[in-house]
Amino acid sequence: MRLEVIICTHDRSTLLQRTLRSVEKAAPLSKSDLEITIIANNCHDDTEEMIKDLSNEYPYPIRLFTELKPGKSNALNKAIEVVKGNFIIFIDDDHRIDYHFFESIEELLEKRNTYSLFCGKIIPDWDGIEPTWIHNIEYPVYPLPIPHYDLGNEELEITINNRLPGGGNLIMAKEVLERTGDFNVSLGPSGHNLGGGEDGDYVRRALTAGFRLLYSPGPIQYHWADSERLSLLYLIRKAYSRSRSAAYINIEKPALPPRFLYTKLLINICNLLIPVPLPRLRFYLMRTSSTLGEISAYLSRFFSRNTENSR
């Protein structure tokens, strides 16, 4: 079995090195070969120099490719062009992997061979000094500033009706890439903006094509807990961007925003008239921004369709 790690990166050489060191320190595969493929997406920092230096003493072969067109989806499509492994393991450049990560994957591929797609846990890499409001239950922060995907400690088959995983901890057979095709370049982040949805869209298309997806608690990745993500402005911007992406993907037929979204927006705005306590204000600011993102998605799909029809 030939396994291939794919990491797409943009101007994050320090974080990328942290990711690669976690791969190096993880328990090695016992029955498979492992290769690392890195797609440098329009990088202007020392990413390429760092990788070349690291390659001299790294325990696994590293291949480096560049993709000049900005956008993670463009980088992922470049990866599809160059992958060689039987199974592809996606790791984000701001993640580190658990020590038993590869052991868990090897066991899954051996025992659950009726599946072509697998996903595991993504856990915030908290250091214990994060603000207490991030764990507030009464007024939870959502979408989460630090990605968190944890469906429990039992294996579960994921369907389109479940909460779909992001792209940071996905394992898929090469056949999935060959049949599902390219990532949607109109979705996903460009640079370090807050675009998203490219991974959920891809998983949805793969499931629609008939591939089966298994969630397992074994493969664990830890997402870097960037303190900049905990600012109120970041939370509001992310609520808008991620809700817009999610709605854009799920709209089956382009149409003007449904009336209930305006009702929801009005309710959220009314709740802002009572601005205390602070967790409550933060909650409704995010909910308002999220609803505006959904409305924007409908308007974008509706007017883009009308523009295409008028050509």
> What share of residues is helical?
40-55%
Mean pLDDT: 92
Query: Count the strands?
Result: 9
Please give the radius of gyration in angstroms. 20 Å
SS content category:
alpha/beta
- Summed up, the helix count is 9
What does this structure look like?
By secondary structure, the protein is α/β, with parallel strands linked by helices. Helix content is 41%, strand content 19%. The chain has 9 helices and 9 strands. Helix 2 links the parallel strand 2 (33-41) and strand 3 (62-67). Helix 1 runs parallel beside helix 2 (47-55) and helix 7 runs parallel beside helix 9. The protein is globular and about 60 Å long.
Give a brief outline of the structure.
The protein has helices at 13-25, 47-55, 72-82, 101-111, 174-180, 198-208, 232-250, 259-271, 278-309, and strands at 2-9, 33-41, 62-67, 87-91, 95-97, 117-125, 156-158, 169-173, 213-224. The chain is of the alpha/beta class.
